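thread: overnight batch results

M.L. [08:02]
morning all. the overnight job finished for the chain we discussed friday. pasting input first so we're all looking at the same thing
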Amino acid sequence: MSGRVEGKIALITGGAQGLGEAAARMLAREGARVAITDVNLEGAQKIAASLNEQRKGSAIAVPHDVTSEGDWVRALNTTEMAFGGLHVLVNNAGIGLTKDLEDITLEEWRRVHAIDLDGVFLGCKLSVALIAKTVKATGLGGSIVNISSISGIIAGHNMAAYNSAKAGVRHLSKSVALYCARKGYGIRSNSVHPVFIATPILDPLVERFGKQEAYAKLARQVPLGKIGEPDDIAYAVLYLASDESKFVTGAELKVDGGISAQ
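M.L. [08:03]
and the structure it wrote out:
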């Protein structure tokens, strides 16, 4: 362990699998204590138990629906009670929707935005006071890392709801960055924009075409000729969570194999 986030406390939403799990493992490995939150409490508990086997007291699991303001308050309070504060919030929880514009129901549109955008807003709104207090007490920098998507920058013909929500996350992150800077909170806010990553969000495509063909179809769209791995995003989260990025705020970090360069 090189300790790039030694002494920091992080909360990661959607931490039971995929990008959230990878981020939780990465931050814990680099010295942070982590609160793993998810609607899938059993999954979050398994990840927390695994981390605690490696370093006792490094992780807790918290049940958390990111669309619920009450759940956010409880998750933040639980984290503060367990670890004494919060330095890093990773807003990772999200869902996808690939569907033609005319076929998207209003209910589907609202659900995607509720989880992918409203949940990020609630996290930012409700966490900044606790992060600012912890930063002041410890002298370690605060950071909000919002997981958007390359789909928040590049649109797709059959991804209207997802494009809209993830684009919202991108711009919300910038607004939060400016707000925290003006308030002098010592909190930076940035967004991460992955392309296709080998996580459960690709399961619908895998079920349709099989894993090998599905991944190959996606890889053909990426200049580097492959899809990403969860740790590709976890390393980006680690950089933004650490004080190595102390002069980076309001930025968007694309981890996309070059797709947005075309």
